[in-house]
Amino acid sequence: MTALDDLLTLRDLLRFAVSRFNAAGLSFGHGTTNALDEAAFLLLEALKLPVDDVNPWLEARLTRKERVGLLDLIDRRITTRKPAAYLVGRAYIHGLGFRVDERVIVPRSYIGEILMRGVLESDGLGLVPEPEAIGRVLDLCTGSACLAIIAAGRFPNAEVDAVELSPAALEVARLNVADYGLEDRVHLFEGDLFAPVNGQRYDLVIANPPYVTAEEVAAFPPEYGSEPQMAHIAGADGLDIARRILAEARSHLNPGGALICEVGTGRAALEAAYDLPFTWLDTEESEGEVFWIDAADLPG
């Protein structure tokens, strides 16, 4: 008998996938952190089932066609070493789904969690006491436009401009904006950081720029190597682009505005280089990787 004949339920396929992923020594980090969660996401998304909980479906028997397709996906996850999100063309941030492929980095920004959980608002840190008062938002390095879309939902009266250097990534961003019916509120621009919106001012600038050193990128496991390198590399210390954003942000913010920016593990280097009152925002899975700074405290 073959695996196709032996593996009949989703539980069977899930166990099989986890065993194979562990044996293959796969790397994770594109929405999941371990073999079990990766396998559950891959199988559930492929079956067009809700990805938040595999338990209701574990005893479901699968058709032969479904089993053939899932076994192929499991095999491709191992042989290609591509993240599961690329194989199924979808990724999620706190329940919101976005189209993804190799043209964009797989969405996983901690800023998405901060926005979705209301950390900035009056019931959190109070940095944005009235979300309805936010009128203009700029999302730099938008990629798939996931943060721009989340911001449009969190700040219901805001017009959101989203800038991306990669024309290929913008093609994916347009699809996601259309999926959410936000073409009238989320405006996409091709270009380098603030250049396409020169002269414009915003209440909030959101930035999830590249923040990885070239040396670290060279040592990436294949899963991370599948992503566009330009979405990762940011100079010798990973802060080249963050420095540019800090230098230019003040001239693009309204009085009372602010910048929120993700810098990965660059906190110590950033604090050593700048005598600025950063407010560091933690999430369930990160500590000191995202900062908030008021416009009045920025250089310039």
Task: Give the biggest beta sheet.
Answer: 7 strands, mixed
Helix residue percentage: 25-40%
Give the CATH class of the largest domain. Alpha Beta
- Please tell me the CATH architecture of the largest domain by its name: 3-Layer(aba) Sandwich
Strand content: 15-25%
What's the pLDDT, averaged over the residues? 94
| Arrangement of strands in the largest sheet | 5-4-3-6-7-9-8
CATH superfamily of the largest domain: Vaccinia Virus protein VP39
Number of strands: 9
Shape category: elongated
Number of helices: 12
Explain what the structure shows:
The protein has 300 residues and is α/β, with parallel strands linked by helices. It folds into two domains: 3-88, no CATH class; 105-297, 3-Layer(aba) Sandwich (Rossmann fold), CATH 3.40.50. 36% of the residues lie in helices and 16% in strands. The chain has twelve helices and nine strands. The protein has a seven-stranded mixed β-sheet, covered by helices on one side. Strands 1-2 form a two-stranded antiparallel sheet. Strand 1 and strand 2 form a beta hairpin. The radius of gyration is 20 Å and the shape is elongated.
Map the helices and strands.
Blueprint: H1 3-6, H2 10-24, H3 35-46, H4 64-80, H5 84-88, E1 90-93, E2 96-99, H6 110-116, E3 136-140, H7 146-154, E4 159-164, H8 167-179, E5 186-190, E6 202-207, H9 214-218, H10 222-225, H11 240-248, E7 253-262, H12 267-273, E8 279-281, E9 290-294
Parallel strand pairs: 3-4, 3-6, 4-5, 6-7
Antiparallel strand pairs: 1-2, 7-9, 8-9
